[in-house]
């Protein structure tokens, strides 16, 4: 009876509060108003469409005059505001939302009260600065059931527990030791644990924390987390688009692995990837890090416009930067103001202005490239650098010279040539002139250069290329003999110095050629002024060293290099996102609704990177926390991993995210391993992942975390694990990508002679992240398990469950080889019985003891299998792919391999439990 | 084993082992895989009974679904001629272009336009084929397509299609995903995501390529973009495994494979009892489907047993990786309930820089290769009553210029045309398409569309309309906003609807 009263009282109070809200309580824009606007209004009155001249996206737009000359919202006066009137209209032709059911009364009341209170705008939670959060008061330890006590391991659990209380749930028991050990090892290293880790932990020699520290210190940690980052970085081994030829980017992959293993703080990790080239005297590693943004695709299809695809790459860099660090789908803003979030059309191009001055121009040779000199050559560079210092060059000038040595930038690509006669860009890429052909290189900055450097290929002797000032009658500035080169070659020729900018006339003659015959092509050229100090005795030797470095052909790595001032590109708004419809000029800046640009930072990529990792940036830490959480729990605290804007779900555990984000910045100083450790130390993480009917109905997707994570492993993990448990996995790290066996005929692309050449030796068994990724044709079994093609930044791999996946683990020779290897090892250990062999196989794969219910089907399978091989002796050698003289032994290996293959197909094997 | 049986077994086991610590089930009877509306497992712990509802889609992401409204077409066969065939030698008859043959191209054509390879002032190139009007509709079709000419009254032509991409890769992406940039789902993925498939033993979206070559834009033209990867096209091959890893390993026969899958599923059921994770049930279902697929796919991909008159009709030669074989396979696949069959032929890039890529030689051979089989496909679908609700689409990624190509400023020995975005021809036939209609006109030389131009988005809107979808409302939520195949564009081309 008393119970009923309290319910009635509760309802009355709720009704009362509701009406009170109507009148007095301040309405919160972000949590109360914005969701209603986003749901019902903004698709017609927002960033894309502004019907009747009314938009609710920005305050100034919403309060401005609409097409009828009057504002729709009059702050402080809801009854006079057409915005409210139209919601209440009875005439369906007049009522908003147009042609939709009217808004619920309580929502209208909220909007009405909001207008009456002055229509105050507010910030979306994710755009608010991260401030320190107090964890909820945990329950008193003594008051807990003994079952609940182990749950409380750190602050995370207090947040989670308070959420569970609200939903009348209790935490699950801790997972079994073996399960937790496997879970932890897979999460931190991507692989099952090593035997000695298992022993030390199980025997109690190691605490849970020591186990974590050991796993974090393992080099496999860097490999596993690099796999995740490489999806974001859209790392691949080819250029993409039609021809999709190889491009050596693996040094960047190795940089990422090392950065994780060294535990490079995330702010440095960010700055080096976005702007390592702009740091003072960048190291080669810092330069290689900038390949993050050279993972953009490069279109080498004949007939493509390099400027179009240069712009496409720059656009991709803008979008990717905001996806990766800001959980913001900035791509929308390319064409119009963001439909929901407070980002304006012009702000997109202001951000683009940071990226629009890198040297790359979608050329065939991936310029700019870092030239990876050997040790002796690096010593020569140091010597040259000292020489420059001794000859009074300023640090800026020295840096320019060193950049030139290391990259040969700035180069001039054939795209800059015009006015062709008897010549053209060959395959629209390379400069080529026929006999008596000529062309122009206009308005070129030569600035007293006395060297011209060509990268070219000539296949006939007796040619001559003449360069004149202005036109065919102009002064001769260079006469270059063109003879057979036997392949592409870099060569320096003398050039008559001229001031500033010049129009240059290029003519070619080779009387030996037929009318339509080409005899050479130029990939790029560059101008350079020889070194200072000509009066000194050592000069010739220094200049010779310089020339030798230039003409050498060391390995290349695409990197970012900034334009010098004389090649500066202005950035203009693209009208409607069309790169050919240029609007007003803009300058580098960041969106107004986010933190201010740091006062002391340059308006360069470096400044932008510093802005991203500034403690005032509201999104970087939240984004990182959310995504690392998702790697471990299978879903983010904000479920839309790619987007934390106003359309994202309101997180159930927003406070926890802010607590972790604040801790990451201030307590951990961007230490990523510490963040991971916090998460896996929690009692929340250590729970059993068993579900039950209550959890299923209250929390089907485990968003409240009353149980541990349980989800399928990634494509790479599934293969790595199979190789690991069969002891085939190679521990070799780094280096060029490898080609493990894949079926015949996967690589059949137009215009491409590229071949998949199956790797030999241990390279067949490397971890998945070393597998060669061809964007137009990725490794097939990875695709089946939802790995992407790395063409664009991928924040989240959707997890599917398909029959094609079953076919991979059942029939792909990689998995069969693993099964045979495992079976061979088992039988070599001379088990006492088949039962114990199967038990051992199962334990080896899953770390768990095999229950009788599970043993029976496997044993039946072994017996059927053995019978099959006994009845079909030829099947044994077919299946094992080799013939063993000892049939008795071979048939058992084959039968056991069938069982091992079944074990490697079990849900508990391909799932993190 | 069907899920129905599986559920029953779980129920039976509960009765047998009521003392077990595991959580147990019984099930609502009578719901089988064939008509999975939704599956209910009612739990029974502590006498409290709650329901676990697994929708058909959770159990099988390709389970069939109804579209927005009644559809005219239930399935699609899309024939893409990669490289872009010349409309001026096939369907867009321009007698005036003869008169301008070898004349310099008018400046007005070149001003402000970019071409892939044409530089400077090229010469006009008269039609390189003879044309005749065909059938009652009087459609102009060149002598390059003698068989297809007889089908003129079955199809609707779009004579003024335009695109905004003049390179193969981006243009193919645009044609198949509605965007020239990567990351969007292909039409086939959208359609299978929407409608699912009628035959769960076969992939819902099948891709067949002539001679095994992939299109310029790579596998993204049948990729699933941001849709779950289960909706991406599955490439079926005439050589090697018809679907990757579909064949059992050597030395393993079907009964043994069956035993292995039974063992895996038996243990997975144990695991489900313990963990109650619905993903495990889905996995059990997927292993059963995989087993059935291993039988169904090789069966449907085998054309050896087709009658002689069918081989005669299509011009098929079993064992080859040809367009003809793929046309016959397309018919077999849709007959078995596959939702979307995408064919890619290649070699249509007739620049005239060599014999095989010239209008005077290679192009004619390509026409011979497709003429009989694509006509046979329409006839065969028709005689089986399938054409009424199967939509057939034919086209390239763009058209070709009325100008002769002059690559690198040189005159060419062979004749060829450059890439052209302004106007080209596509045709559609079957489910919901009018017969014998020609829609759209180009100017007197076929350079610009002058009347009833249609965009790539319009074609997508029309395909979705025929399948029962309003393209403006058929969306997928990604990155906080709804995405459409047609982005913010597209109008249904009503004039070619039956």
Query: Which pair of chains has the greatest number of interface residues, and how are they split between the two chains?
Result: A-B, 109 and 93 residues
Residue share in helix of chain A = 40-55%
Number of helices of chain B: 13
Q: Beta-strand level of the residues of chain A, as a percent range?
A: 5-15%
Uncertain runs of chain B with pLDDT below 50, 5 residues or more?
6-51
Which class do the helix and strand fractions of chain B yield? alpha/beta
CATH-assigned fold name of the largest domain in chain B: Alkaline Phosphatase, subunit A
| CATH H-level superfamily title of the domain at 396-554 in chain A | Galactose-binding domain-like
Please summarize what this structure is.
The complex is a heterodimer of chains A (913) and B (498). Chain A is of the alpha+beta class and 913 residues long. Chain A is 41% helix and 10% strand.
Describe the structure.
- The complex is a heterodimer of chains A (913) and B (498).
- Chain A is α+β, with helices and mostly antiparallel strands and 913 residues long.
- Residues 14-21 of chain A have low confidence and may be disordered.
- Chain B is α/β, with parallel strands linked by helices and 498 residues long.
- Chain B contains 13 helices and 20 strands.
- In chain B, the strands form 6 sheets. In chain B, strands 4, 7, 8, 9, 10, 11, 14, 15 and 18 form a 9-stranded mixed β-sheet that branches. In chain B, strands 1-2-3 form a 3-stranded antiparallel β-sheet.
- In chain B, a hairpin with a 7-residue loop joins strand 2 and strand 3 (51-55).
- In chain B, 59% of the residues are buried.
